[in-house]
Design goal:
five-stranded antiparallel beta sheet, 9 strands, 295 residues, alpha+beta, two-stranded antiparallel sheet
Length: 295
């Protein structure tokens, strides 16, 4: 296909060789399949702020810092330069999160380069070498639902131990990739295993520095519970989010910890179950709105 203008610049710079096709278009970016030598990768082209349906809500950008003090002052004042700096910080947040989470052992696409609002990264594939499907496009057995739910709960724990909360985790931004047991990387060949790979991280937040971190973590985990609970109903009774946040707050959360999925509210503690009810109510309201709109 003809390369979009934003990607043509990368071809001229020698960062990619050609554009094969558009893979998807989402609320904050359009993703293309590209060729780099003999490798097939993907290029995530971030949309301009005026074109995005997903806004940089204060819940996500709270305490997000930039190293340059001039940029920080301009961002605070909302000047044109400040808005440009804020946009750059928004885009680079995903790159930073990918490197940080990969180092923590979380399954995310491997980032290769970031240039002029375009993120070059690994193309996560299925067992046939095609682009991996989102969880939303897959029907699971009860056994597989339990297995992938357990895997993703562990991934969320690893993220939290690395100080990161996804903030928008759901079945729509997790891919079911194929892992070759020989090299442990998403992709691979027949004979490996299917593994969830977490994507879409520009809204990732700092667990320690954001006042909304607890609510967002609980929402992320509730989304996983509700999705996989369609296939394994007993998962709907679990409270992994409440349990892991309590452990995190007490400084005893560890990537190798064995969670129970149960949580007992302590007297005088924050009403975490009330927070969960609010999250569930909001999700139900959004689902009803989509039905009314014919989505």
């Amino acid at each position: 296909m003809k390369a979009p203008k934003r990607l043509q610049a990368l071809i001229e710079e020698g960062l990619i060789d050609s554009v094969s096709r558009q893979l998807m278009s989402g609320k904050e970016a359009t993703v293309y399949v590209v060729q780099v030598g003999d490798d097939t990768r993907c290029a995530k082209v971030y949309k301009e702020a005026t074109e995005r349906s997903f806004r940089q809500a204060v819940d996500y950008t709270e305490n997000r810092k930039v190293k340059n003090t001039r940029q920080a002052r301009a961002m605070a004042k909302g000047t044109k330069f400040g808005r440009q700096a804020q946009e750059a910080a928004w885009q680079s947040a995903e790159v930073d999160a990918l490197y940080r989470l990969a180092a923590a052992g979380v399954r995310v696409p491997k980032p290769y380069n970031f240039c002029d609002g375009v993120l070059l990264m690994e193309l996560v594939t299925d067992s046939h070498g095609d682009a991996a499907p989102r969880l939303n496009d897959v029907v699971f057995t009860a056994v597989d639902a339990r297995k992938h739910h357990a895997t993703l709960v562990l991934e969320v724990v690893r993220m939290l131990c690395a100080g990161v909360v996804h903030g928008d985790l759901s079945e729509f931004n997790i891919l079911l990739g194929h892992e070759d047991s020989a090299d442990g990387a998403p992709g691979g060949v027949d004979g490996g295993v299917d593994v969830p790979v977490i994507i879409d991280l520009p809204q990732a937040i700092d667990a320690a520095g954001n006042n909304h971190a607890a609510r967002m973590l609980l929402r992320d985990v509730a989304n996983l519970r509700n999705f996989f609970g369609q296939f394994a109903p007993e998962l709907l009774q679990t409270s992994y989010g409440l349990e892991m946040w309590d452990l995190y707050q007490r400084g005893v959360l560890d990537p190798d910890i064995q969670l129970t999925g149960r949580f007992e509210q302590k007297a005088g503690a924050i009403d975490m179950r009330g927070v969960m009810r609010e999250i569930d109510d909001a999700r139900d309201e959004e689902s009803a709105r989509r039905v009314r709109m014919g989505a």
